[in-house]
Amino acid sequence: MKEEYDLSKMKSRKNPYAKRLKKQITIRIAINTIEYFKELSKESGMPYQNLIDMYLDDCAQNHRKLTMQWK
């Protein structure tokens, strides 16, 4: 390997903007909801957590509000 291609001695650094982009949280989600997104994940080839994030982001961007009816 050429000397200039040897990256083993270089120090890696984390993306300084990563924490501004996303925040890790704990959330309780119904099992059937997770299974739904996991099935979508198989079809799309995208991780189910990303799909959930994209769906929630779409709701936020379009100011969608949940409508509920109590029976």
A few lines on this structure:
The protein has helices at residues 18-21, 31-44, 48-61. It is mostly helical and 71 residues long.
Walkthrough of the structure:
- By secondary structure, the chain is mostly helical.
- It has a domain at 29-61.
- 45% of the residues lie in helices and 0% in strands.
- The longest helix has 14 residues, at 31-44.
- The N and C termini lie far apart (70 Å).
Helix content, binned percent: 40-55%
Distinct helical segment count: 3
Number of strands: 0
Tell me the span between the first and last alpha carbons. Answer: 70 Å
The averaged pLDDT comes out at 88
List the secondary-structure elements in sequence, H or E: HHH
* Uncertain spans: none
Structural class by secondary-structure content: mainly alpha
What about the largest sheet? none
Quaternary status = single chain
- Broad shape: elongated
Kindly provide the radius of gyration, computed on alpha-carbon positions and rounded to a whole number of angstroms. Answer: 20 Å
Percent of sequence in beta strands: under 5%
